[in-house]
Design a protein that fits this description.
This protein is of the alpha+beta class. The protein has 2 helices and 4 strands; from the N terminus they run βαβαββ. A 4-stranded mixed beta sheet has the order 1-2-4-3, with helices on one face. Helix 1 links the parallel strand 1 and strand 2.
């Protein structure tokens, strides 16, 4: 895993741009790498969207749980998904 964790503070990002940025960053993570999301509310809807679109491919850990700031560490699970088996899951558009 990389020594640094990519942190995305979405509090100043236009709401419609938040999830695409988060998913793009997640797709760029190697196995067992993590990113951290900073938000002004519980990002639980993001968790449910990730469960639907990336099932079994991540872990979700609250680092800070409000009431004014939420920080969540999202870690890509190593060895999961089609990329781990040399294929493509179709989510990134790559092969």
């Amino acid at each position: 895993m990389s020594a640094s964790i990519r942190q995305i503070d979405v509090r100043d990002i236009t709401p419609r741009e938040r999830h695409p940025l988060i998913f793009s960053t997640f797709r760029g993570l190697d196995g067992a790498e993590a990113m951290e999301i900073v938000n002004d509310h519980d990002p639980r809807p993001l968790y449910y969207q990730m469960q639907a679109e990336q099932p079994g491919q991540f872990s979700w850990d609250y680092v800070e749980n409000g009431p004014f700031v939420w920080r969540v560490r999202i870690t890509r699970r190593a060895g999961n998904g089609a990329h781990a088996q040399g294929g493509c899951c179709g989510a990134c558009g790559g092969a």
